[in-house]
Amino acid sequence: MTKQLDRPVYADGHRFFGRHWRGRVVIVTIVLLVVVVLLGILGILAGSSSLTVPDVVETLLGAGTRAQNLIVIDLRLPRVVGGLLVGAALGLAGALTQTFARNPLATPDIIGVTSGASLGAVAAIVLAGGTYSVAAGLLTIGLPAIATIGALVTAAIVYGLSWRGGVDSYRLILIGIGATATLTGITSYLIAKAQITEAATAAQWLVGSLSGISWASVWPVLVVLLIVTPIALVQSTNLDISQLGDDVSTGLGVAIQRHRVIVIVCAVLLTAAAVSASGPIEFVAFVAPQIARRLAKTGRPPLLASGLLGAVIVVGGDALARGVLPGEIPVGIITAIVGAPYLIWLLTRRNSKESNA
């Protein structure tokens, strides 16, 4: 009898960037890509100034009027593109952290990475005199850089404190919650000590909104996504293997600590880029990977589908806030309204499973 070598069980079936894909994942990814395009068009159309699809097409082709160019090219298009990139970055970051920690609660929002980036960004806003558009002064480079530093330092501290011969996901979450509370307190202190204009700007930014996005703030997120996404996809096979546990992963040849560092750095860079552009849009990194996993029916969140679903949530929520709801509500409020009940449901469901076990 021929002995068959044991191989790790992958969630999908076809090889791509080190990832074994299954047909359902491919279909879900393609469908989400189509939805992203449609929502992008809807996002350009949504608003107080009535535009038709032919108007938008003509404007994008360079045949629009001066007013249409102002509305489409200067105002709505950077907002939609920025929302797509921010949502994709948050969705991908959430998928990476949830997978490496093997816990759906281990998202950048909960383990302190978002709060670290927010603290850095608020510090940049205060130093810049209350202007939070990254096109202005210090913030052209300063806000993304300081947000990234804040996120990296926070992630390093939380990861280091969680280490006890390995990283336990629940310990990581508990320490992350404590770090989030501490960093939120420091951020509130900065706002309280700032001038009234700076405090108002920082408070508005902390809600999470696409209203301040310009082309200058879009480019850093795009560059980070273009660099980090291929690196994350290369780690997909190791992410699959790591679901089997540290001992098994090491036995199968995975350099588990180096793999984790790469995954964490990727997630931190994505989160910092998103936060520096739009503020902390809560719960996208938490909800998007879990919905993508259920749509694709995989054992862990699929990376590309999670990113696309994050883009759907952010752009769809922003279009809803501008085109349907009265007034202009920041998209961060919309995602919090959707995400908070889902978090409560997930916690209740996990507690019920543990009680029945």
TrEMBL record:
Superkingdom of source: Bacteria
GO cellular component, one term: plasma membrane
Localization: Cell membrane
TM helices/strands, residue ranges: 25-46, 113-135, 141-161, 173-192, 212-234, 303-323, 329-348
GO MF annotation: an example: transmembrane transporter activity
Alphabetical UniProt keywords: Cell membrane, Membrane, Transmembrane, Transmembrane helix, Transport
Biological process annotations from GO: siderophore-iron import into cell
Pfam family, one: FecCD
Membrane topology qualifier: Multi-pass membrane protein
Entry's family note: Belongs to the binding-protein-dependent transport system permease family. FecCD subfamily.
Record's protein name: Iron ABC transporter
Originating organism: Subtercola boreus
Native organism taxonomy: Bacteria, Bacillati, Actinomycetota, Actinomycetes, Micrococcales
